[in-house]
Request: fold
Amino acid sequence: MTAAHISPKGDRVALTVRGRVFVAPHRQGRMVEAERKEGVRCRDARFMPDGNSLLVLCDGSGEVEVWKVPANGVGPSEQITKDAEVLRWEASPSPDGRYIAHHDKNQRLWLYDVEKKKDSMIDESEVDQFDDLRWSPDSRWLAYVAASSNLYSRIWIHALADGSKFAV
Reply:
């Protein structure tokens, strides 16, 4: 499966193809292999707001963790999360780059504070996984979809200021 995410300036696209991560220019230029380690599979590469690095889900540590990878392919990668128990999904950076929202196969929603290097669970579902993580432009609100007990999907809003949440 191929996944593509456009850079903040719209000048490049991050592609994840068969476990490998590439960055391709909009027009002319060279395609860069941003992350390639033998025996490691990556998926769901997304640009960080600065456009200089990517968030990638990779299994290099034995579990799927969130990694920060240079978008130009030069320099070391940095493992962001280190405590996965199961498969992680959809690492989504906030527009200001201070937080990374992600969820896992145990149906838990996490918020990683980049500055404090701390992962906190902000929601848990007994019914199904979370979907469609979206940030407000000012990074103060995280919207996501979660199933209710009747299996209907609901949109939830999480306030970063006080940790409160409500359905819309």
